[in-house]
Amino acid sequence: MKTLNNIAKICFVTLITISMSACTNLGKKIGIGVNKTPDEFRITKHAPLEIPQGLTLPVPQPGAPRPQEVTPQQEAQSVFNAQPSSAENAVLNNANDSIAPTTTSNSDAFLDQLGAQDIDPSIRQKVNEDYEDRVNEDVPIGLKVLRLGKKVEPKAETIDPKAERERLQQNSAPQAE
């Protein structure tokens, strides 16, 4: 009789767990079946749209390929030959024609008015704190329970370039005996 009771309890808990995992929000919190990345095979790349100079558009022809499209074979060949494709050349040429000079005589005054000269030196620490908060926010409940309340440390490590250079120089220097 006791084993029948235990089996009924196990079946009930299993049934509740399965039915609750069907809820999207609960599954997301627990970390079950959540795929946050896009499917790279469903993303298609199209060349940017262009507006002709005179705005005289050609009559559309159903089923005709787009004139600025490049086939995957042509794109691969241009990558291996280290030359941009014809569509990329057209875009680059049009972009170079319309680019204004990047610096002007008033750029410093403009930056002063924006307040860009007064940059907070502790911005990196603030960004890192925000990042740590977001990392710990997205951790599934199951992992939080297993870690028993410990915060997740970001995997990135900041290296001091001067100290690293000195360490590398010391390691590469011949040892005196």
Report the total helices.
Answer: 8
N-to-C SSE string, H for helix and E for strand:
HHHHHHHH
How many whole angstroms does the radius of gyration measure? 30 Å
Q: Judging from the principal axes of the Cα atoms, what is the shape? A: extended
Helix fraction, binned, reads: 40-55%
What's the main sheet like? none
Q: Into which percentage range does the β-strand content fall?
A: under 5%
Uncertain runs: none
What class, by secondary structure content? Answer: mainly alpha
The mean pLDDT is 73
Query: How many strand segments?
Result: 0
Q: Distance between termini?
A: 81 Å
Architecture blueprint of SSEs:
Blueprint (H helix, E strand, L loop, with lengths): L1 H20 L2 H7 L41 H10 L4 H13 L8 H8 L8 H15 L3 H7 L13 H12 L5
Keywords:
extended; 177 residues; mainly alpha
Walk me through the structure:
The protein is mainly α and 177 residues long. It has a domain of 38 residues. The protein has eight helices and no strands. It starts with a helix and ends in a 5-residue tail after the last helix.
